[in-house]
Write a structure and sequence with these properties.
The complex is a heterodimer of chains A (186) and B (227).
Chain A: H1 2-10, E1 24-29, H2 33-42, E2 51-56, H3 64-72, E3 77-82, H4 93-111, E4 118-122, H5 128-145
Parallel strand pairs in A: 1-2, 1-3, 3-4
Helix pairs in contact in A: 2-5, 3-4
Chain B: E1 2-6, H1 9-16, E2 21-27, H2 30-33, H3 39-56, E3 61-67, H4 73-76, E4 88-91, H5 95-104, E5 109-112, E6 114-124, E7 127-132, H6 148-151, H7 178-189
Classes of the chains: A alpha/beta (186), B alpha/beta (227).
């Protein structure tokens, strides 16, 4: 998943003609939107090649960090596509995603990006045409808003510290099927 | 649990000023549960700070780490090898964690990313409310498990004030009147007799700051019992 976002940054810019070609990332639920994308393909429907689809098991799995990360890596617009309300394969995943997207929009606004660059769509599995329509809609929106202010800027250096394991753990790590302490020997 | 909320990004940016090397230090205990300063929130804050720096073209490095707890010295030792690399540590712990971090790494500038709010419980996902004022003299056994010191804005100990209005508080009509709750609960328990006793004025001396506590098992002559 993270690799699919990361590849955004390495891609060559535009077509060389200088025209702005937005990069749009779509996090698609495997049960509905992704299937709809498949259907759109089978129906030979045309939708902008600017959309990069990231398949997720459920839209509820999408974290706010992923959405921000996509923008950091140079996406101009991002959307999450989940099932219709009440149709989630995991019952409430899409409701969760709605909340996550609303929260991420607030964070984007706080940072200074237009919250409209992020959206949530309900796309049922049978709606191939709707998938294509949403893809066009989001690409047009990105075109209208113009390139993201983060695009083509030097990425900020960052890493996650990995702390060494505790040299004196309170108990030795549990090992399944083995005695872990001498006191347990009978 | 200690409940906190993140400061606005602008305020955090203003604190960071021109710092170039920033380590965001999360805390995996209370503030992780109240979704203010755990590993996830550290990621989000670091991401927001990176985006700001990226957009403004500011030279900045933002690293992140989340400790099990920031209010225990043992967990801070693991950071010692890294702190020298940074100009500031931005802590997303409660006030206690920020202070211990500052004490442990006294040559470093430590900044708080959160506002610590209260000791409370979760009402539901994402909603918390204050339940304890840490007054040092619990009287929940007399009030049916509802704390008038915390939940009544006037700290009343002998029944409601004249402002109780159909079970709501006059200070904030959204809040329940603590004394109505106490009455209903004691009524249910059949212990309304507890209300007959007059409570003397509360002794606020245990709340004198800064409080300190030595566990009886650790009391020696060099560490006398706290009073």
């Amino acid at each position: 998943m993270k690799d699919s976002i990361a590849c955004l940054g390495t891609e060559t810019e535009g077509t060389g003609s200088g025209a702005f070609e937005p990069k749009v990332v779509a996090f698609c639920c495997t049960y509905c939107a992704y299937t709809a994308a498949d259907l759109a393909g089978a129906m030979r429907l045309e939708y902008p090649p600017n959309v990069r689809v990231v398949q997720v098991l459920c839209s509820g799995k999408v974290e706010a960090e992923w959405l921000l990360r996509a923008f950091e890596e140079g996406a101009d617009a991002v959307y999450v596509a989940g099932c219709a309300l009440g149709d989630c394969h995991f019952l409430e995943g899409n409701r969760q995603a709605l909340r996550t997207v609303a929260y991420a929009k607030r964070l984007l606004a706080e940072v200074g990006l237009e919250p409209e660059r992020l959206e949530f769509f309900h796309i049922p599995a049978s709606a191939g045409t709707l998938f294509a329509q949403r893809a066009r809609e989001m690409t047009d929106r990105a075109r209208r808003l113009g390139p993201s202010p983060l695009r083509s800027k030097q990425a900020v250096e960052s890493r996650k510290l990995v702390l060494p394991p505790d040299p004196h753990p309170p108990l030795p790590p549990a090992q399944l099927g083995r005695r872990i302490r001498e006191s347990e020997e009978l | 649990m200690i409940v906190a909320e993140r400061k606005p990004l602008d305020e955090i940016e203003a604190m960071l000023a021109s710092a170039e090397r920033v380590l965001v230090v999360g805390c995996g205990t209370c503030v992780a549960v109240c979704m203010a300063g755990g590993e996830k929130e550290v990621e989000l804050l670091a991401s927001e700070l990176r985006m700001r720096a990226q957009a403004s073209g500011q030279r900045r490095r933002i690293d992140q780490v989340t400790l099990t707890r920031q209010c225990d010295r043992e967990y801070l030792d693991a950071l010692a090898a890294y702190v020298e690399e940074y100009d500031v540590l931005l802590s997303t712990a409660c006030g206690a964690g920020v202070q211990l971090l500052a004490e442990r790494f006294d040559g470093k500038l430590i900044l708080p990313a959160l506002n610590t709010r209260f000791i409370g419980t979760a009402e539901g996902p994402g909603v918390w409310s204050q339940r304890c004022l840490a007054c040092g003299q619990c009287l929940l056994h007399l009030t049916g498990g509802v704390c008038p010191v915390t939940r009544c804005p006037k700290n009343l100990l002998n029944g409601p004030c004249g402002g109780t209005n159909h079970g709501k508080c006059e200070v904030n009509p959204e809040n329940d009147c603590a004394w109505t709750l106490i009455y209903r609960r004691l009524e249910k328990l059949g212990r309304l007799d507890l209300l007959d006793a007059i409570q003397p004025p509360k002794d606020y001396r245990p709340m004198t700051k800064p409080a300190r506590l030595v566990h009886p098992a650790f009391q020696t002559e060099s560490a006398p019992p706290t009073k």
